[in-house]
Amino acid sequence: MFTFNGYLNENPEVQKGDILLAEPFLADPNFERSVVLMCESQENGAFGLVFNRPAKVRIEDNDNIFLEENPLYVGGPVEQNTLHFIHTFDFLENSIELKDGVYWSGNYEQLKALHAQGKIHDGNCRFFVGYSGWGNEQLKNEIDQNSWVIARTNLQKLFTIEPEKLWKDILKSMGQKYEVLSNYPKDPRLN
Q1: Hey, how many other C-beta atoms are within 10 angstroms of the C-beta on 123?
Q2: Is 21:143 a contact under the CB 8 Å cutoff?
Q3: What's the whole-model pTM score?
């Protein structure tokens, strides 16, 4: 089996606004070739949202009509009864800036008003059910085992690349040594 011998992550400390890319051999189906935007990373744990996993369902909710009109993504396997959003609205109250003009959460009533004005679309706001979470030291251990590649790229890219191409495109943009990963087939037996 091909191994990476630890060369993937030169700076293995995950920070808010980093992107985690699942290595191609990660066996967990929740994270197969996933692109996780890190919203929080602290000593006691980490929180992120899978950016490239469109949900196969729609939410029908009279209070949240815009969820019927915008794609919904699976943010991760934890608490899939919660709704999260990532956006580019710098004026949205109570938002948490991740970096590069990309924000997590914020004032939901303002978001609904933006939708009523026709200003919400997949290029500036994404909605997620559930999230990805790691306990104390869990993420560090997974990174030490080369389960994840840490990418530090402009977060605006997340809104411009099609979800099914995101994992591969970000890896390719990181240079030649990562291009090997981006081209690795999902099932090498079929190659």
Answers
A1: 10
A2: no
A3: 0.88
